Each structure stands twice: as structure tokens, then as C-alpha cells.
Amino acid sequence: MTLRNTAVPTAIVGMGCTKFGDHWDRSAEDLLIEAVNDAISSVKGIRLDDVDAFWLGTTVSGISGMVLSKPLKIKNKPITRVENMCATGSDALRNACYAVASGACDVAMAVGMEKLKDSNTQGLVVPSAPTDGTTADLTAPAMFSLLIPAYMDKYGVSKEQMREALSHIASKNHANGAKNMRAHFRREVPVETISTAPVIAGDLNLFDCSGISDGAAAAIVCRARDVTKYCDSPLFIHALSLSTGSDTGSSDSAYDYTTFPEVAVCAENAYNQAGVEDPASQISMAEVHDCFTPTELVLMEDLGFSARGAGWRDVLTGRYDLGGDLPVNPDGGLKSFGHPIGASGLRMMFEMWLQFRGEAGPRQIVNPQLGLTHNLGGQPGGVVSFISIVGSTPR
Amino acid sequence: MGVEAARLLNLVGVQNLLFSTTRPPLMDKGNASTIAAVLGLDDSIAAFDLGGSTRSTVGCLKLARTSMETTLLVGSDIRYGRPGSDDEINGSDGAFALTLGANPKVMIGEVTSLSSPMMDRWRSEGDVGTQTWDDRWTANQQVPVMVSAGEKALRSSGIARADFAAVIVSSPSPKVNAAVHSEFGGRKTLGVDQFGFFGAADLGIRIASALSSAGPRQHMLVVSGADGADAFVMSTSNDFSCGTGHEVSNDVGIGVSVIDYLVWRGLVHRESPRRPDPEIPAAPAVSRNDDWKFAFKASRCTGCSCVHLPPQRVCMTCGAVDLMDSVPMRDARGKIRTFTIDRIAFTPNPPVVVAVIDFEGGGRYRCQLTDVDPLAVEVGMEVEMTYRLISTARNGVRNYFWKARPVKERAS
Q1: Which residues of A are less than 8 Å from B288 in CB distance?
Q2: ipTM, 2 decimals?
């Protein structure tokens, strides 16, 4: 397998991100205009017309690049609509970086947007091609809840210990989100409230699940050697890694529902690109895909932050709290932001942008060295996984 | 239910399949061909639906008994009606299956039929349940016709009344049944008597129930009343022994709430969850995948024996392309590896209980569980497959597929 970093390093020189939430009074177009204009105005002396090409990530809020060009009146530029499940926004960024690295253009923009709250449905609803009617219609919480009994069984974790760890994750992320003006849910939630909330699926209750929101975010990228033209404190890209599973976990008895094998491979590739040998000590902070609390728990192990079977203990010792050794989801995560699918990956990157520029306010992490963002889409047994590693110094 | 009954039989050599019901899942499009596909029968089978009247079943029997070919007869019915109606009080859902052919274990004598256009019961298209005329008038009209048919069958059999081990009577009216029984005597209490009338499945269920405790060389008189009467004599062979394929399940299974039942029958409508409508099975996709959709056949790699559910062309273990065997999995047993209860997903039978099942002999599949107490499910539980209703799509198609249920040990 030959997967390398881009031959020419890239960097983010401008970003914008809307508040995430129930934007009853704003359309998909409104969200795009805000995120794109905020990104443009974050870069001194640049105009929208200076952006050579665009990658728009959206899963269900429209098709083709015209979803972006029409509201912003972008005339005759190359715009690609990207869809890659919950990693959609991250993959838009990956493609924009590849474009500038290739030399095909100098400045590119990645935009992620989703407008979910007009739909009158509960949970995510993803369109599918017609089928033979044999696929079980399971909701996302049910699919991810399959992790819980398998994890407890494999590592001898009691129901009470598991509950405590999952509630800790939810409580931590809500506490972080309470400090974030852009988060959808800005209330701290005590562990007791979380542990006694109504059940949604399996052992997942209401607070183990992320919400559904509207939101958009945008990033402007260029080659790392060009950053001084645009920005004093850019975010340098050290790794862009994507791994797509073959979706065999639901039919392969070897899969045990305690890991996302795609993530482990994705992480190995990302760490190789960034020259990271010991992620548990070298990564300063991480934004990970906490769609459900057991997802975050398992990710701690797949990303190499915790040893196998030790993730739940590390969670409970506060290792991943905002003041811990390796803060995870300092911005509040999907738990606080909800999950406007196409926007989430770039929202994670926006937190890196703020943290590395010292603009994260009450959430500021002291002197971060390397940050990691991680997205996944799909279900245990078959996911798309994305990982980036970023920092404020060039690679 | 019809599939479930037929799965208990040895179906080797079956050439015809006759399906009888008064409540077909679909009309215009037949259901017998679906049953044949689900049972994995060869597509050269002649599969026909006969329905409309509860009398269809005895009609199938009459036509098939003289055939030189082997015929599978499946009768299945659901009986429901408005609160307080005869169907609600005296109706039961059930199914039977039997095969007719050479070297029978049970000989069916000539069937005597008498026809009568009497209006004892009727149902128009779209009616909730059956309407009936006054029971006393029905008895007055129906009993003499049934007795007459029964006597004629007795006479033509040449067997003395005293030599009959049992008389089996099937009609919608308990009053009529009692009167016919008192005429012929030899009433034998059947395990299924408590359930009432099974519609088009009634005659077959009663025959199976009587045979389940019968011995060799026994004679039974069968009298059936609907649109007139039919009667015949049934005799067990010299080597007949009960318990070989004559099984009546009295297991009422897991309790069903009245509300769930009324929702299933379309008599009460539950508020839909804020989720997409149940998917419409696409006819071309169903056709392409019919071995999977109906017969639950997996593909097994001829190189490394890896089993794929649903069938795949490329092996997930060794990568071989198009080197697959087709293997039926419907009789395979498996164990639950992990499971969940989905309280949001749509189902006519909430909550959705879904398990990841690892089959004995290889293969994993994730599917719904049924006939199960959601709180009693546990990792390691042994399950078997059963063909069930998944949902009714908004185009009216009743989408059936395989679900798993806890293994019920059967007396062999």
C-alpha cells in the first residue's frame, strides 16, 4: 500500500463556522453565505473571487456544486460536491488540499453544510437506492449500541462501570460545549441526569446520542510555502488519512464489535504521515466523532490514545477532560454541536483553528503541539474514517 | 404460517403446490408461487392459489387425491372481525400443510360433495370481518346437508360405523359441529378444539390434530360444512405411527397485546414515528435476489468456505471472484453474538429487537428477532430462522423476509 502525505505541504489560512442549532429562521443558503463570508473575511486582503476552486460537502442538502454557487453567485469556477457519509466535510477539505498541493490551483476552499431541521423526522435519514426490501431499517443509535454489550463482554466491564464511563463522556462534552458560543446545546449536564435519561436503543439513552442540527463551516487552503501571503498564524496540515471499510462486519463472524478496524488503519496511516510514533503522548488534543458515547470510548483505543480494554478507565480518570492529559472534544463535540453531517468535519477543524491561534477563550488548551480531528460514518462493521493531524508549525 | 407448517414436511418430489386461504396477503398476484420460492422448491412446480371460500381447502384435497403427482397442500388463514362478531369470538389464526401422493401413510377415500348456495356467512371486499345469519337457521339448514354427505361417504366406504376411531367435523359454527357429532357419535376431543374455527385452515388442522394421536389401521370419518358439505373416509396405513410429520403446535408463543393485534389487522392505526415510511421492495431487485429474498440462500466460497449473507460475488476472506456455491440457510441455527433494542425504528411490532447472529457451520447475519421477550434476549441465545412480515409498504406490498426467533425444542 502506498499512501503518503501530499508531496507539497498545505495549510489552512482562513476559516468560518456558523453557530450550530435549530436554525428555523435560516435556510441552507443562509448558512453557506455566513460560513463562506466569515472564512473570506478571516483572511486579510482576499476576496471570494480569489478562490480558484471549491469542494462543497453535503450529504442530503442538495446536489452538485450549484448548491454553493447559486447563493454566493460564484461564476464559472470548478466546484465539486462531496459526499462521504459523516466524513463528508473532512473529505471536502482533503480534496481541496490535494488540489493546491498538485499545483492545479493556488487557493481552494472546502465548505461543509447541512440543513436537517426542516425534515420533520427523528434521527438521521439517509437516502438509499431501491432495494429488495431485506435490509433491516435500524436507526443509528441502535447500530452503535451494538458496541456496548460486546465491549463489556470482551473486557469484563460491568454494566455499572460502562454506564459511568459513557455518562462521563457525555458530561465532559456537554461541559466543554457550555463554554462554546457556537454550540447547539450550551448547558452542563450532570452525570446523574445522563444516567437516568430515557432509553433510545439498547443501553443508549438520550444523552448518549448526539443531536440533529443545522450548520456550516468553511476553510481556505493554500500551499504551506504560500501562507505568508494570506495569514500570520496558519494551521499546517501534517496528515490527511481516509479509510473506507468493505462493510463486512455484519456478515463476518471474525468482527467482534469492540473496535472500528477502519479507524485503526486510518490512524496508522495518519501517524506515519505526520511522523507520530506515540500518539498517546504526542497528540495534544483531539476532536473525535462522538456520535454516540460508546463510539468515543472505542475511538480512544482505535486512535492509540488508550490501550485495548483500558479506554473506559482512562475516561473515568479524566484523561480526556478539558484539563486532562489529552483533551478530547474540547469544543463540545457532536454531543454539544449536534451533527449537520456535511459540516461536522470542518467544525472540528475550526476548533483546531481557534486552539492553535490561541482564540479558544475559556476552552483554550495551553501550548498545543499537534491536534487530531477524526470523523467516521456508517456503522460498526462498516465505516468511512477520516483523520487529520494539524499544528501551528510547518511539517 | 403456511410456510412454517410446510417446513415441517419432507418436500422431496413435490410437483404441485396448492395454497388455500380466505385472506391472501396479495390478490391478482398469487401467493403459492411465493411459498414455493420460500420453501426452496424447484421452479418447475405447479403452484396455484385457491381461495375466497373456506371450502377451497377440501376442494384442493378432492382434486389432488386422485392425481398421480405429489401435491403439497397448504392452508392458512387469519380470522378477525369487529368487536363482538362471530369471527372475533370463535375465530383463530392457523395453518396446516400436507402432502398427497403415492405410498400414502393415510388413505383418503372418495370425497362426497353436496352443494348449497345458503347465505350462512359472507364477506364483501373491504369488509373487516365475516357477517353471519342467525345461528339457529344455519344449524337447521347446514346440519342435514352435512349428515347426508357423511352418510353417503360411510356407505360408499363399506366400513361399519362401529369401526370408526374418530369423526372429524369442520364448520364455522360450534352449534352445527355439535349437532353433526351427535349424529355420528365417536367424538374425539382434539387439542385444537379450544381455538375455534381456523377458516380455510380448519379442516387440515383438525385432520392433523386427530392424526397426532392415531394408530395404524384406523378409520376416521371427515365431514366438512361450507357452501354445502363434503365428506370422506380417511384410513391410516399399516405402518402409520403418529408423530411422524403430524404435528399440531398448541404453543401460543409470546403474548400479543390487544392493541398490537388490532394494529396488525389494520383495525387501529398507530401514530407513525417521525421516520421514513417502510421501504418499498423494488420488483427488479427482488427478482435478481430471489434466492436470498425468498429461500434465504447464502453464497459460500468454494475456495475458502467463507459463507456470505446476503450472497456476495467476491469473497470477503480470500477475494475469489464468482467462485461461490449457493447454500440454503433457512434451517441453520445460530447464536446471538450481540443485540440491541431499537425504540425508534419503524416496525408493526415494536420495539425492533435486532441481533447479530453467528450460524453453526459459518456465516453471520444481522436481523430482527421475533416471538421473543425483548428483556429476555441475551448474548449466546440459540436462534432459528422464520419467514415473517417485515412491514407493509405504502404501495400495499406486504414485505416478508426472514427473522430469527429463540429455538423451540420440538418433540420429534
Answers
A1: 132
A2: 0.91
Flag if A133 and B288 touch (Cβ within 8 Å): no
Q: B342 vs A201: CB contact, 8 Å cut-off?
A: yes
Q: Per the CB < 8 Å rule, is A252 touching B366?
A: no
Crossing angle of helices A147-155 and A159-177, in 10° steps, is 120
Write down all domains in chain A, each with its CATH number in brackets: 10-122+213-236 (3.40.47.10), 140-210+238-391 (3.40.47.10)
Catalytic residue among A168, A174, A289, A339: A339
Average pLDDT over residues B82-108: 90
Of B312, B345, B356, the CB nearest to A139: B345
Q: What is the pLDDT of residue A77?
A: 98
- Residues in chain B closer than 8 A to A128 (CB atoms): 279
Q: Do B275 and A250 touch (CB under 8 A)?
A: no
Question: Are the C-beta atoms of A213 and A117 separated by less than 8 Å?
Answer: yes
**Rounded-to-10 torsion of CA B40, B41, B43, B48:** -120
The alpha-carbon gap from A250 to the nearest alpha carbon of chain B, in Å, equals 6
Question: What is the Cα–Cα distance from A20 to B348, expressed in whole angstroms?
Answer: 35
Say how far apart CA B357 and CA B379 lie, in whole Å: 10
Pairs across A and B, CB distance < 8 A = 130
Q: How does pLDDT run across B304-347, given as a tens digit for each residue? A: 999 999 999 999 999 999 999 999 999 999 999 999 999 888 88
User: Rounded CA gap, B346 and B274, in Å?
Assistant: 9
pLDDT tens digits along B200-236: 999 999 999 899 889 999 999 999 999 999 999 999 9
Burial label for B189, CB within 10 Å (0-12, 13-18, 19+), is exposed
- In A, minimum Cα distance to B281 occurs at A133
Q: How far apart are CA B135 and CA B143, in angstroms?
A: 11
Secondary structure of chain A as H, E, C letters: CCCCCCCCCEEEEEEEECCCECCCCCCHHHHHHHHHHHHHHCCCCCCHHHCCEEEEECCCCCCCCHHHHHHHCCCCCCEEEECECECHHHHHHHHHHHHHHHCCCCCEEEEEEECCCCCCCCCCCCCCCCCCCCCCCCCHHHHHHCHHHHHHHHHCCCHHHHHHHHHHHHHHHHHHHCCCCCCCCCCCCCHHHHHCCCEEECCEEHHHECCCCEEEEEEEEEEHHHHHHCCCCCEEEEEEEEEECCCCCCCCCCCCCCCCHHHHHHHHHHHHHHCCCCHHHHCCEEECCCCEHHHHHHHHHHCCCCCCCCHHHHHHCCCCCCCCCCCECCCCHHHHHCCCHHHHHHHHHHHHHHHHCCCCHHHCCCCCCCEEEEEEEEECCEEEEEEEEEECCCC
Q: How far apart are CA A288 and CA B298, in angstroms?
A: 37
Q: Crossing angle for the helix pair B202-211 and B56-64, nearest 10 degrees?
A: 60
Dump pLDDT digits (tens) for B2-27: 999 999 999 999 999 999 999 999 99
Q: How far apart are CA A274 and CA A289, in angstroms?
A: 20
